[in-house]
């Protein structure tokens, strides 16, 4: 039987070592030394260093969804919820930007882009429920398929936050950038020309 604590130790150690040394230079032996576990224990959970990357991505997304759910006000208007989600997405993208960068490079090595869908499923479902509630109240257009829309909205938020924080857009006003994202999403939710 696998020990969840050891799994978490390995993921935390991987984050620390990869942040310190970069994805390429980090080794399994460095990770297990940091985690305080045997090398064989690492391989009970992961078949390679690259296989840890989806676990790191899952941890980032779990933190994001947890923060969104904590800040969400039940009964809030969908546009208030979207504004809060954009705020959280920008904050956590800045906080985790180094990890996000090596998640992208590590996912490419691991050829596991299909895991993104599984990792994001709880977040997509949560937003889809919020959109359905808003649609039922007539607060957003009924002319859209919510399953796809929830994915598009999350992708717009994350791509915008990543472009802003990962491409070092210094000198640009974060608040203006966030407001443009919010306006874009609001237009998509209220466009009656669809």
TrEMBL record:
Q: Which UniProt keywords apply?
A: DNA-binding
InterPro entries on file = DNA-bd_HTH_TetR-type_CS (IPR023772), Homeodomain-like_sf (IPR009057), HTH-type_Tx_Regulator (IPR050624), HTH_TetR (IPR001647), Tet_transcr_reg_TetR-rel_C_sf (IPR036271), YvdT_C (IPR041603)
**Residues of the DNA-binding region:** 27-46
User: Can the keyword Ribosomal protein be found in this entry's annotation?
Assistant: no
Would the keyword DNA-binding turn up in this protein's UniProt record? yes
Ranges for domain HTH tetR-type come to 4-64
- Cleavable signal peptide: none
| Highest taxon in the source lineage | Bacteria
What name is this protein filed under? Answer: TetR family transcriptional regulator
Q: Which organism is it from?
A: Planococcus dechangensis
């Amino acid at each position: 039987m696998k020990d969840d604590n050891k799994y978490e130790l390995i993921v935390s150690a991987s984050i620390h070592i990869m942040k310190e040394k970069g994805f390429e230079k980090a080794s399994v032996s460095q990770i297990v030394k940091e985690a305080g576990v045997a090398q064989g224990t690492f391989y009970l959970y992961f078949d390679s260093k690259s296989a840890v990357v989806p676990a790191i991505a899952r941890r980032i997304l779990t933190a994001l969804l947890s923060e969104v759910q904590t800040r969400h006000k039940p009964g809030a208007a969908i546009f208030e919820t979207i504004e809060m989600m954009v705020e959280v997405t920008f904050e956590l993208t800045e906080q985790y930007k180094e990890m996000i960068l090596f998640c992208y490079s590590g996912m490419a090595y691991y050829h596991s882009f299909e895991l993104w869908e599984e990792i994001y499923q709880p977040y997509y479902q949560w937003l889809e429920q919020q959109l359905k509630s808003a649609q039922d109240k007539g607060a957003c257009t009924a002319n859209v398929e919510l399953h796809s829309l929830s994915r598009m909205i999350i992708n717009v938020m994350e791509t915008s936050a990543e472009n802003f924080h990962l491409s070092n857009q210094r000198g640009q006003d974060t608040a203006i950038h966030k407001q443009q994202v919010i306006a874009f999403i609001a237009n998509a939710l209220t466009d009656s020309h669809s």
